[in-house]
Structure formats: C-alpha cells, structure tokens
C-alpha cells in the first residue's frame, strides 16, 4: 500500500550558485558520508558532474521528505538520508540514525528515481508499507 509520493525539480544553476557562495560547507550539509565521497570524486574529474550529482541528491531528498510527510523536520535530516547506487546502477535510499529507526518502525520501504539534464535535476519517490509476512 502506498504511504506517500514525492517529487521535486531542482534548478542545477541554483545549486551551482549556492555552492559558489557557500563553498564546500553547502555540499557537506546536504550530503551523507558516502555521497560526499562520490561528489568530491566527480567534482575533481569534471566540476559540472559534481554539481549535477549534488543537485540530484538535493532533489531526491526533497522528494523523499515529501513522500514521508515530514518535510525537513526531525527526524528527517539531509545527512541521514543518502541516495546510493546499487551494483546494477539503480538508485536506492539508505537511511541512518533516528530517521532510519523512524522509517523502520513504520514498516516502510522507498523507491527513488533521479534524472538530470543540463539545467535541471528531477526526482520521484514512492514510499510504501512493506507487505506483511505470509503465515507458514
């Protein structure tokens, strides 16, 4: 059963402007431990790829916060929600800390899709309740 749906569109130029104004502290505020490593690696190779990565993660976290119905208030925090890639390349949501505990206590699971073009990043998240285990 669907618990919530969230979507977000992010202007990559706005993320680039914010990053330029605030420096690496902005990325460190938004990205979790794994994400910050990927961001630094991509930025070192091609700055635009790092910025697009940051924008997709920003967008996905906004969409996730809408899908769970909390917005950006506790236990939802930027860094406790990470968007990571499975071995197949599929994006997945990895939660930490109080947000993970809150999410698991409700028996929820999330699905995320991210995309970006030159100027925009977009994300779509569906959160659903996990099906009850079937009796033996």
UniProtKB/TrEMBL annotation:
Catalytic reaction(s) noted: apo-[ACP] + CoA = holo-[ACP] + adenosine 3',5'-bisphosphate + H(+)
Entry's EC annotation: 2.7.8.7
Domain 4'-phosphopantetheinyl transferase: 4-122
Pfam family, one: ACPS
Residues that bind Mg(2+): 8, 62
Membrane is among the record's keywords: no
Keyword Metal-binding on entry: yes
GO MF annotation terms: holo-[acyl-carrier-protein] synthase activity
Chief place where the protein resides: cytoplasm
Top EC group: transferase
Cofactor: Mg(2+)
Compartments reported by the entry: Cytoplasm
Protein family per UniProt: Belongs to the P-Pant transferase superfamily. AcpS family.
HAMAP family xrefs: AcpS
Name recorded for this polypeptide: Holo-[acyl-carrier-protein] synthase
């Amino acid at each position: 059963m669907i618990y919530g749906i969230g979507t977000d569109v992010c202007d990559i130029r706005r993320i680039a402007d914010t990053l330029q104004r605030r420096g690496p502290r902005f990325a460190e505020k938004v990205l979790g431990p794994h994400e910050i490593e990927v961001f630094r690696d991509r930025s070192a190779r091609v700055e635009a790829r790092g910025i697009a990565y940051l924008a997709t993660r920003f967008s996905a976290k906004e969409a996730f916060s809408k899908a769970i119905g909390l917005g950006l208030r506790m236990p939802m925090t930027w860094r406790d929600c990470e968007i990571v890639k499975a071995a197949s390349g599929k994006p997945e949501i990895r939660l930490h800390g109080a947000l993970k505990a809150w999410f698991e206590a409700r028996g929820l699971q999330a699905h995320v899709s991210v995309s970006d073009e030159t100027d925009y990043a977009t994300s779509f998240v569906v959160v659903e309740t996990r099906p009850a285990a079937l009796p033996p």
